[in-house]
Design a protein that fits this description.
Strand content: 25-35%
Order of helices and strands: EHEHEHE
Number of helices: 3
Structural class: alpha+beta
Helix content: 25-40%
């Protein structure tokens, strides 16, 4: 177990209508290709399945994301060597000409409910 790892992670919680999952998956496949091609160590897009509270532990993603009956949540994260590497890679991805194909109106998600953040590694196992 490592406690002094310097890796950096961008994490996302993304509520999504179930009917939009196929469109999101296409976008996620593009994203995985772009981030990995530009140097990310790993890229994950995870589909929510078991989102309720178990054994009284926390509030669960369903409540956290304010999900409606026709929605689920995507839990996504990208792993980088460092924060500086993340910044370099994200700049390359955002400047890629294919990014012009994405705007808020064409997204299969509500960007007002899209949650993201950058995280330094505390413990790695």
């Amino acid at each position: 177990m490592k406690t002094n790892s310097k890796k950096y992670i961008d994490g996302f919680v993304i509520p999504i209508k179930k009917k939009d999952l196929a469109a999101y998956k296409k976008m996620a496949i593009w994203g995985a290709s772009m981030w990995m091609k530009n140097g990310a160590l790993s890229y994950f897009e995870c589909l929510g399945e078991d989102l309720g509270v178990k054994n009284g532990m926390g509030m669960g993603f369903k409540k956290l994301a304010g999900l409606k009956a026709n929605e689920t949540v995507i839990f996504s994260f990208i792993v980088y060597k460092s924060k500086a590497d993340r910044d370099r890679i994200n700049k390359k991805v955002m400047n890629d000409p294919s990014m012009k194909d994405f705007d808020e109106k064409s997204m299969p998600i509500d960007m007002k409910r899209f949650v993201c953040g950058g995280f330094s590694t505390l413990v790695e196992g």
